[in-house]
Amino acid sequence: MAKFNYDKSVAELEKILTDIQSPDASIEDLSVKLKRAKELLKACKTKLREVESDIESALSEDDEAK
Q: What distance in Å separates the CA atoms of residue 24 and residue 26, rounded to the nearest whole number?
C-alpha cells in the first residue's frame, strides 16, 4: 500500500472539484470522482485527527514537565 500523502490528496481533491464543476464533466465520471473524493476526505480527516492527537499529547507532556 502506498504511503499516504496529505498534500497530494488535497491537490487531488481540488482537481476533482474543478473537474466536476466543468460544464464538460461527464455524468459517467461523476460517480467515480465523487467516490474517490469521499475516500480522500476520509483519509485526510484521519490524518488530521492523528496530528491533532500528537500535538495534544506533546503539549500535555510539556505541561507535565513544568
A: 6
pLDDT, tens digit (0-9, with 9 covering 90-100), for 19-64:
999 999 898 899 999 999 999 999 999 999 999 999 999 998 867 7
Q: What is the DSSP string of the chain?
A: -PPP-HHHHHHHHHHHHHHHHSTT--HHHHHHHHHHHHHHHHHHHHHHHHHHHHHHHHHHHHHHH-
- pLDDT surpassing 80 at residue 2: no
Show the CA angle centred on residue 55, arms to residues 53 and 59, nearest 5°: 115
